Structures are given as structure tokens and as C-alpha cells.
Amino acid sequence: MNDILSHAVNRSRLCGLLVALTGACFVILQQVTELSAQDNLPPVIVSASRMPSSSIETVTSATVIGKTEIESKQPVSVTELLRSVPGLHIDQNGGRGGGASVYMRGADPNFTLVMVDGIQANDPLNNHGGSFNFSDLDSAGIERIEVIRGPVASVYGSAAIGGVINIITKRGSAQPQASIDFTGGRFGYGRTAFMTSGRSGVFDYAFSTAYLSDGEPVKGSNFRNGSYNGKFSIAPSDNALLQMTSHFADSHSESFPEDSGGPQYAVRRQTDRRHEQQTTVGLNFSHHPLAWLDYDLQTSFFNSIDDTKSPGVAAGVRDPVGIPPSRSNGSFQRGTLTSSTTLSVMDNLSVNLGFEEKIEHGSNDSELNFGRFVLGGKFKLTRYTSSPFFETRAAWPFGLTLQGGLRADFPSDFAAKVSPRVGAAFKIAASGTTLKTNWGEGFHLPSFFALGNPIVGNVNLKPETSKNFDAGAVQSLWDEHVEVGVTFFDNRYKNLIDFDAGPPPRLVNRSNVIARGVEATLQIKPVDSLSVRTQLTYTHTDIINSSEELRRRPKWRAGMDARWQPRADLTLNLAVFYVGTVLDSSIPTGERNLDPYARVDLASVWSVTPKIQIAAGIDNLLNRKYQEAVGFPAAAIRPRVSLRYNF
Q: By C-alpha distance, which of 198, 317, 230, 229 is closest to 265?
């Protein structure tokens, strides 16, 4: 970490800002005043722009999964929460040990930027090109999840050309709280979680830790995870906040290798074994010294360590050679320094200017075992990226919001990239209609795996690029008891990195892809105690000048979430989702069309007393037998019971 930060300091004057930040903190702490009450501030979306805005003003397609939904669903993982988001498909290789990937509007998993409290958590060392494994996330301590669908590279640069998922952890409230959870379920499922939060004067804190064992819901799948979230804030005045966030996860997973055909078709019956640790730490200082001026200074650090042993995959229909047994040990670090200033030029016009300096370093030591000989490979890569950015937003009282942004990235070893974005939102008060449109361009740098892997890596790879457009409308009816929405999207990706069997086998820039579709949503809240949300997504992907089809992109997805609170102490939640036919492939079988499936999950939460809460859930209530990947059956029906004690 010290090496990374020292390199960053040598490359940028942002170190002066960091020193100034530290000094300012000590000065402010000497002028302590009472913390202002912030619990009743209206909710805003913070992930779509450097200038947070309400859902009405946001020009992008956004979904917020809030605290109430998280608690009522009692999810076993964040994966279950994300399944209800329109335009977003998740697949899981059998049990939780097999990992889970997100496909946003038909985009590759590595095109979605994943953040924890605003800190990037994608790992460019993995063989998926920098995607994020959502199986590693525990729901303990999560306040809300913001999902931004569409182009936001103008805000975050590379890795955000498909969208953004920001997991935001809880912050301490005025009333001290502490609780402990015990959960048990079928297949050996067990989970323990402890959470505490509170506030004292200008200081507030929130801390959560959890340990989970998923048992063996699918043959060969095992997952154990210990995690920690911490958020500590000091608000010395009404207009200043210093906040430190930290997250740590340590997971051990076991599953049949990807493309092996899983427990149904795999010839080799040994499983992948993986040990992964991820750490994020962030320090953020925000200040609003004048009515027309805000500035924000942030430093963050991300570290990932991965140790994987694989038995490989035997030769089959798709590959006459197969994949040899392997071992891989990787380490990746990312350090970031960011400065951002927002000026309110006029009552209806705001401008944000900023600069980000990022350094990434990754190393990997791997072996491929061909029986008579072992092929070893090592690589180390370091990447620097300097990025000035600019955003502006104009909002008028009659309901029109215009927003635009521009970011220039100067990565080492690659040419400079410019990511523009423009959008508009217009609310017609008389009819309750909101119209939105958004356009942007972006890029995705080749991952460290794609560049440095000694077997398939290619140092001549070019960045993947995108052009994204969407337009939609939201209509409120019957005093906002009903809301109907529809959004059309058209995404175009060029120079996608694909595997070329060769010889020699290697990764190349080959495919150009178009992903078009429509998202439709319906929300009904006839009474305060009942709410129903439904969504339907159609996505068509096409590889230009090719008869091949993209894997794991269903054309049709649908879902429904119904939450009913018949009494003040009882909440019931019913979740249903449907996935249409999906094309997939494995080495032993070749391409297969996986059957459509529907799944039903049920959860209930009963507050027996103010201190005791009992929750029950049934995953896959109808015990449907389906596959999200060839040969990997989904877990059968699993009942769970949880007991929470509030101190």
C-alpha cells in the first residue's frame, strides 16, 4: 500500500490536498459544535453523478433497494436482492460457491462497475476481465443498494460503461442500537451476524460483522464467508463531515469448475477450491463553507488476494483438449485520490469540477499441469490513470432538468480516452408524467488478466468502447398509488475482447455487439400496508457479422415483489421472478438452450417484542428444478429460520 501511495504522490499534486485535508480536520476538531440532525433529509441518488440528485432529477435509469426491502426479504445474499431490478440478469453456477455474475442490459459482467460505499471493488486480475463476484457479499450492515443502468463512464471512467451498482452501508443514528442474529436452514445453512450503531455528540458509528456457512445446497458446492463493515463519521459543524469507511471479506468456496458441466456432466469429479480476501478503506471529507460552494476530498484503497486451485476440465464436445489442472495466486491493489468542487453558479445551474489520480498494481503466479511437465507463469503490471472531469446540471421550476458531463482519462500505456454524456428529465406536473433520455460514450481498459496472462494474454489488446442511449417515461396515477414506467435502450459495444483458440490460443479484440431492448415497470400501493412491484425486460443481443450468439443473456426476464404488513409487528414478502430460454455452453456438452424457469421465494418477519424478532424464509418455495448454467442445478427448496435479539 505504501508503494502505491508513494507512486501516486510522485505523479500528482493531490498529495498536497491530502495533507491539507488532514490539517483541516485537526483545525475543525478544535471547533466542535453540535451535530445537526440529518436523519430526515430527503433521499437522494448519489451514484449517478458527482452532484447527488433526487430520482426525479436523475437523467439515468436508477433503482434503489432500500432498508425496508432488505429487511423484509431476509435475503441469503445480495444476489437475491438484485434479481428484482429491471434490465439486470444474474446467473449463479449452482450453489453460492460457484459465484454469481451480473449482466446489465446485455453487457458483459465486467462492464458493470461495483462499489462499496463509493469505492471500486472490481478486480481486473480475474479471468472474467474485471467482473465482481456477488456471492461474496453479505447483507449485514447494508443500508441500501443503488443500481444505475446506462452510461456513467463520464463520472467513473473505465469499468462503468454498462452501469453501476453501489452498495451503501449503514451510518450511525441518534438512537444507539445493537443486535445479534442467528439463522439456520436446510443443507447445513448457518449464519451469525452482529450489528451496532449510535451517535455521541459530533461522532457517529456503525459496525457490523457476519459469518456464514452455506452448507452444500448443490453437490460439490460449499461456501464460507466472514465479513466486516465499519463506518465512522465526525460532523464538527452543520456543513462539514469527515467519514471513514472500511469493509473486509474473507471467503472460502468450492465448486465444480466453470464450463465443466457441473455435477451433472463433469468428467473430473474434483472441485475448484478458492480462498479470497477483499479489503476496502476510504476516507472522505466534504465541506459546504458557502451557500454556493461544496468541495469533497477522498482517498481510498482496495486490496484483493486470491488463491485458486482447479482440477481442470476434461476434453469434450466443445474442446478436444480441455483445460489442464491449474493453480493461481494473485494479489491486486488500487489506490485513489479524488478532489471535487461543486459551484452553484445560479439558482438553477450547478457546475462540478474535479480530478482523480489512480494507481493499480497486480501480480499473479500461476501453474498449468500437463502431466509430464508443468508450465509456470508470472506477471506484474502497474497502471496509472489521471482523470480530470466536469459536470453541469440546470434545473428549472417548471420541471426540466438538463445534465451533461465530460471526463478525460490518461492511462499509462494507452491513448487518452474522453467519455461524454448528456441527458434530460422533464416532469409534467399537470399529468404526473416524467420523461427521461440519456446518451453517453465510454471505454473499458483491458484487464490485467487479459494483458498479462502467460497463456492467453495479449499486450496488444485495445480498450473496448461503447455508445449507449436510452429514453423512457414514468406515469403516476391515482395520487401516486400507481406508477407505470417504460424505458427503451440501445447499447453498442466495439472491440470486445474474445478468446481465439489459435494456435496459439490468446485473447483478441474481435466482436462488435448491439444490445437493444425495453424495460417496463408497474408499482401499485393501494394502501400503506401493501405494495406490489412488477418488472418485465426484453433484451436482444447481436454479434455483428457473426452467426454466433452471446451466452447467458436471456431475451425475457420478469419479476414481482409484494410486501404486506397486516399488523404493525408482522411483515410478509413474496418474490417471484421468471427467466426465459438462455443459451449456455460447457466443454462436455457444447451449446445448450437452458429451459425457462420461474422461482418463488417467501419471507416473513415477526417482532415478538421490541427486543425479539423472528424471521422465516423459504427459498425456491415450489421446489422448481432448473439450471442457470449447463449442468449446475439450482438449490432445491430451503426453509430458514432466524432469531434476532435487540439489546
A: 317
Helix, strand or coil, per DSSP, at residue 449: helix
CA distances from 396 to 346, 422, 470, 599 (A): 11, 17, 22, 44
Distance CA 511, CA 491 (A): 14
Closest C-alpha among 185, 178, 136 to residue 615: 185
Q: Quick check: 63 and 402 in contact, CB under 8 A?
A: no
Q: How many CA atoms lie within 13 A of 335 on its CB side?
A: 17
Q: How far apart are CA 335 and CA 332, in angstroms?
A: 10
Say which residues have a Cβ less than 8 Å from residue 39's Cβ, sequence separation at least 6: 173, 174
How many helical (H) and strand (E) elements, i.e. helices and strands, does the chain have? Answer: 7, 33
Residue 575 CB coordination number (10 Å):
26
Backbone angles phi, psi at 236, to 5 degrees: -70, -15
Per the CB < 8 A criterion, the answer to whether 607 and 146 are in contact is no
Q: SS3 letters for 357-410?
A: EEEEEEEEEEEEECCCCEEEEEEEEEEEEEEEEEEEEEECCCCEEEEEEEEEEE
Cα distances (angstroms) measured from residue 223 to each of 93, 137, 277, 311:
12, 12, 14, 18
Nearest to 420 by CA among 50, 49, 151, 163: 151
Helix, coil or strand: residue 472: strand
Distance CA 168, CA 115 (A): 8
The predicted pLDDT at position 43 comes to 55
How long, in residues, is the chain? 647
DSSP code, position 71: H
CA angle 86, 89, 92 (to 5 degrees): 145
What cell numbers appear for 210 in the block?
Answer: 457476519
Per-residue pLDDT band at 40 (split at 50, 70, 90): very low
Q: What is the mean pLDDT of residues 590-599?
A: 96
| CA Rg value for the chain | 24
400-405 average pLDDT score: 96
pLDDT band at residue 243 using 50, 70 and 90 as cut-offs: very high
Q: Residues of the chain with pLDDT > 70: what percent?
A: 93
Closest CA to 385 of 634, 573, 608, 124: 124
What grid cell was written down for 344?
452553484
Residue 416 has pLDDT above 90, yes or no: yes
Q: How far is CA 54 from the centre of its chain?
A: 20
pLDDT tens, position by position, 136-156: 788 888 999 999 998 899 999
Phi, psi dihedral angles at 216 (to 5 degrees): -130, 75
| 59 membership: H or E segment, kind and range | none
Question: Within 10 A of 264 (CB to CB), how many other CB atoms are there?
Answer: 17
- Average pLDDT value for residue range 23-42: 34
What residues pair up with 603 in beta bridges, in sequence order?
573, 617
Strand segments, DSSP code E, in 238-323 are 240-255, 272-290, 293-310
Residue 500 has a pLDDT of: 84
Question: How, if at all, do strands 506-527 and 482-500 pair?
Answer: antiparallel
Name the nearest CA neighbour of 403 among 59, 9, 44.
59
